[in-house]
Write a structure and sequence with these properties.
330 residues, alpha/beta, eight-stranded parallel beta sheet, two-stranded antiparallel ribbon, 14 helices, 13% strand, globular
Length: 330
């Protein structure tokens, strides 16, 4: 699979853009664990052109994570074009446009998936961004606004005509948010359209290595994007890519998983500060499957998620790794 001049190989597995999740440290770890491509957090065009510090920080790219994409969102042409030029100056490999975020503070204001209710404006923004930068431009969107308005089959052709070089489709409508099951048959229908010649990347409900293998085999997509299943579990990319390439699902040892979580914590604190860095990482700790099988874990979980210092949090993780988990294995 190739996006512009970016070669991703056969059956690439990508880290999805996720707000407050896909910071530069997490992206680099996922890349090291096997992700073929990474995406930034959502970057607000309006905030970027106002030079809001928290937004401009999202443009940071680690050399080791490439190829990587920076994703922008907005609802007006001029700010999106200006933001696209600023993103290009930051040096990503690809510029992605977010027409899929369903949350109210984004879609409710007409950006993200809100654009699915104003397709002419969506296409105007897409054409303008493509014309404004030399980077390959891609789009991530959903099936439609609701189940009565699944427009992705026609929309995919329209976006392709605007000059985008790949399209990622989340197999839900905006009204579904993240509920119900992703409809991959609609993604497959777009991929099988003989008029579509750009890569089609599927997204939604990819939780295991077998899910990735099935997505490629059953729906014929060019790439698969993994989102929520990677939170607190960057090692999932090793499992997925090893199964695809060798037929054997490679598992990380428990000690390595703990080491990766500790690294995330440390780098989050170094990137921001101790208090906010720990707040940022709590989402990963809360979601991590590493703790799912521990019986009577609630008190330790509460303590872990209420820790306010790096030393306190590391002490709790060491206790879980060295005392709690070995006791279960025995």
């Amino acid at each position: 699979m190739k996006i512009g001049n970016v070669e991703l190989g056969r059956r690439p597995v990508m880290l999805a853009p996720m707000e407050d999740v896909t910071d530069v440290s997490f992206r680099l770890i996922c890349k090291e664990q096997g992700a073929d491509m990474t995406y930034s957090e959502f970057v607000s065009a309006d905030a970027l052109i106002r030079n809001i510090a928290a937004t401009t920080r999202k443009l940071s790219i680690a050399p080791g994570e490439r190829p990587t994409a920076i994703q922008i969102y907005g609802r007006e042409v001029e700010p999106m074009v200006e933001a696209a030029k600023m993103v290009e100056a930051a040096g990503p490999d690809i510029l992605d446009i977010n027409f899929g975020c369903p949350v109210k503070k984004v879609a409710g204001k007409g950006a993200g998936a809100g654009m699915l209710r104003d397709v002419p404006k969506m296409l105007e923004i897409t054409r303008a961004v493509v014309d404004a930068v030399s980077l390959p431009v891609t789009v991530k969107t959903r099936l439609g606004w609701d189940c009565e308005n699944k427009i992705i089959y026609t929309l995919a052709e329209q976006l392709q005509d605007c000059g985008i070089q790949a399209l990622t489709i989340h197999g839900r409508t905006r009204s579904q948010m993240y509920t119900g099951e992703a409809d991959w048959s609609e993604i497959a229908r777009v991929k099988s359209n003989p008029r579509i010649h750009i890569p089609i990347i599927g997204n939604g409900d990819i939780r295991t290595a077998q899910d990735v293998a099935d997505a490629f085999a059953r729906y014929g997509v060019d790439g698969v994007m993994v989102g929520r299943a990677s939170i607190g579990a960057p090692w999932i990319f090793r499992q997925m890519t090893s199964l695809l390439r060798t037929g054997i699902e490679e598992q990380a040892a428990t000690a390595e998983k703990f080491a990766l979580l500790r690294r995330q914590i440390r780098e989050s604190v170094e990137r921001i500060d101790e208090y906010r860095g720990i707040l940022h990482i709590r989402r990963h700790l809360a979601a991590s499957p590493l703790f799912k099988s521990i019986p009577n874990f609630r008190p330790l979980r509460i303590a872990m998620l209420q820790a306010n210092t790096l030393n306190e949090l590391n002490d709790i993780l060491e206790r879980i790794e060295n005392e709690v988990i070995p006791a279960i294995d025995d």
